[in-house]
Design a protein that fits this description.
Blueprint (H helix, E strand, L loop, with lengths): L1 E2 L5 E2 L5 E6 L5 E5 L5 E5 L3 H8 L6 E6 L3 H10 L5 H4 L3 E5 L3 H20 L13 H24 E10 L6 H8 L4 E6 L6 H4 L4 H11 L4 E4 L2 H15 L6 E4 L6 H7 L3 H14 L9 E8 L6 H14 L7 E8 L6 H21 L7 E4 L4 H10 L2 E4 L9 H8 L5 E5 L5 H4 L4 E3 L4 H12 L3 H15 L4 H11 L27
Parallel strand pairs: 3-6, 3-8, 6-7, 8-9, 9-10, 10-11, 12-13, 12-15, 13-14, 15-16, 16-17
Antiparallel strand pairs: 1-2, 4-5
Helix pairs in contact: 1-19, 4-5, 5-6, 8-9, 11-14, 12-13, 12-17, 15-18
């Protein structure tokens, strides 16, 4: 069964039995000068997951048109994308009005919900919930309603629907009203704010967000910490979670893909270039490397990481000329002024370090801002130390990917505020992300770690990092929708035990 755009029940004999909903889909489009559409396929856990259920599963992915190329593709196809562009995957792309989309995506999802869950506000000045916020919130409601209607149209009777992330927090509740027959799950890829911070939101908005997710049969999270925070908010605001179950799925690294991809020719080429740029120390041996790979997202804490590296060079002068910080900071959300300012500050601090400590034969910070996946993998392979110090992060796959790829083994310096800490903390050097001095000390400890200990840490990190690869992560969520109520709570979790050895990465 299905529904028309107006919400009236209509008969459907071709509805999908498995549906995924996310802001970004598996393919994006650009219009060439001659008017042709060029499709570019993406990757990630959802793509791997849908592939894992097989071609006969009758699945469909519902997503939004993100730019002019996508909108043109929707106009030409009616929203049902050409399977030749999607690798055979059925995709329905929604052309939500550009102004509505901009308000929902940048005005609410990225500028309010992201800031709340990552606790990024400078509270003496922000947030301010005024008439402008209310207008944007109306767009967020409209955006979520468009997804709910599309999912209702596409779903077969009793289908399983997996709704992704904070962009679509209202969809489960709206979809439940349209299609009570569906099995609905919602997955949060971000942290969940603690009660006191969540209650910065207007009371009605906080309640609406929680009730939206509680429209699902099951609400899932990356860690127990985030699941428990959600449950606490529900108790405080609503009195409880009702019949909605909670669960945990700690998305892991795709080891087979990473190991194969990291040894292709383009990565080897980037590796040679980076080695030349890094150079050798005063004794002729290769310089040590501290690697970070991030978007210039406010929560990633890149500036404090650079300040910690500067402190290392200042207080441990023996490292001057003997270590290089590979800092890959790929610009993110540059349509928002606060992100442009942050990106500029990253570049300023890196240049200050180089001008203060650099010599003719040694550049202390190699900052790269052009997104290059092959170069990132080359840096992973070179890493002696991986620096992952977010102020708050739902998971952070970089923390999981570097130990899988590193050629000589690495020491992970990890923020206790990263979701990955729950699985990797026992084998990492843990830091308070705000404590620059302690982070510098951890970097020094990591650099002097003996080879045997480095190898042992890497082995355990890689095992934990690959415990729940993307395909299994997706399939486990599907299976959990059918699990009995008594077997699925935020206290017992769905997170698997880490294997003894490795199984084989949105804005």
């Amino acid at each position: 069964m299905g529904f028309s755009q107006g919400g009236q029940r209509t008969t459907s004999t071709t509805g999908a039995t498995v549906l995924v909903a996310s802001n970004r889909g598996p393919v994006s489009y650009a219009v060439a000068d001659d008017g042709t559409l060029n499709a570019r396929r993406g990757g990630g856990g959802l793509v791997s997951g849908l592939s894992a259920i097989g071609p006969d599963a009758d699945a469909v992915w519902v997503c939004a048109a993100l730019g002019d190329g996508d909108r043109e593709a929707v106009r030409r196809t009616g929203g049902a994308l050409d399977p030749a562009d999607t690798g055979g995957q059925r995709v329905r792309m929604l052309d939500i009005p550009a102004d509505v989309y901009a308000d929902a995506y940048n005005g609410i999802a990225n500028s309010v919900l992201w800031f709340v869950h990552h606790m990024l506000y400078q509270t003496p000045l922000e947030p301010v919930f005024d008439a402008e916020f209310r207008a944007r919130w109306a767009s967020y409601e409209a955006y979520n309603a468009a997804f709910a209607r599309a999912l209702a149209d596409e779903a077969a009777e009793g289908a399983a629907v997996l709704v992704q992330d904070y962009h679509l927090a209202l969809v489960p509740g709206l979809l439940r009203e349209l299609r009570p027959d569906l099995r609905i799950g919602h997955f949060s890829h971000t942290p969940w704010a603690p009660v006191d911070y969540f209650r910065l939101l207007p009371d009605d908005v906080a309640e609406q967000l929680l009730r939206g997710i509680l429209g699902a049969d099951r609400a899932a999270f990356l860690t127990h910490r985030w699941a428990d925070a959600f449950t606490a908010c529900c108790r405080e605001v609503l009195g409880g979670t009702g019949t909605t179950r909670t669960g945990v799925h700690g998305l892991g690294a795709d080891a087979d893909f990473l190991r194969e991809r990291s040894h292709r020719a383009d990565v080897d080429e980037r590796l040679r270039t980076l080695r030349e740029q890094i150079g050798t120390g005063p004794d002729g041996s290769p310089r040590r490397t501290i690697v970070r790979v991030d978007r210039t997202e406010l929560s990633k804490n890149i500036v404090r990481g650079l300040l910690a590296y500067r402190d290392l060079l200042e207080r441990h002068p023996d490292w001057r000329g003997r270590v290089v910080h590979l800092a890959f900071a790929y610009p993110s959300r540059q349509d928002l002024a606060v992100y442009r300012d942050y990106t500029a500050e990253v570049a300023r601090v890196a240049e200050e370090i180089n001008s203060t400590y650099g010599t003719e034969g040694w550049t202390p910070v190699l900052l790269h801002v052009e997104d290059d996946f092959a170069r990132s993998l080359a840096a992973y392979r070179l890493a002696d130390v991986a620096l992952v110090n977010p102020v708050r992060d739902g998971m952070n796959l970089v923390a999981k990917e570097v130990p899988v790829v590193s050629d000589r083994g690495c020491v992970l310096v990890l923020s206790r505020e990263a979701g990955a800490f729950e699985e990797l903390g026992a084998h990492a050097l843990t830091v308070n992300p705000y404590d620059v001095t302690a982070t510098a000390d951890a970097l020094h400890t990591a650099l002097v770690t003996p080879d045997g200990e480095r190898a042992e840490r890497t082995k355990h990190l890689a095992a934990a990092a690959t415990a729940l690869p993307p395909a299994r992560w997706f399939l486990d969520q599907l299976r959990a929708l059918d699990a009995p109520d008594t077997s699925d709570t935020s206290d017992t979790s769905d997170a698997p035990d880490a294997p003894d050895a490795p199984d084989a990465l949105d804005d």
